[in-house]
Amino acid sequence: MNDEELAQQQVDAVIAERRRNKQQVTEAEESAPSIREWSIQADLLAGIHDRLGSLISATYATTPGIKRVPRLKPLPRPETAYERRMRRARYREREMLHNWIVSQVLPNK
Known about the structure:
The chain is mainly α. The chain folds into three domains: 1-31; 37-78, no CATH class; 80-109. Helix content is 65%, strand content 0%. The chain has helices at residues 3-20, 27-31, 40-62, 81-105. The radius of gyration is 20 Å and the shape is flat. The N and C termini lie far apart (47 Å).
């Protein structure tokens, strides 16, 4: 088993665990490319794709008669360990705040 297969197994295990715990799994987590397959060329192409999407939206916005401007989603980027850590810290902070509010509103829980 190589490193990429091992990393994919770990990602799959985390997603499966969150589903078991009924935690929300974001779409970006499921579709984000692996950090190993991400390269300078992929980053540049993703940037070009995102900028073209912005230009297309701006063109539609300035066209008379068009009421709904399409918004193109940016391409997913790989998530780094630092970003995962920060996301989990935000989640824990929100969970602690929620638990505190519940304890103030419902003192018996």
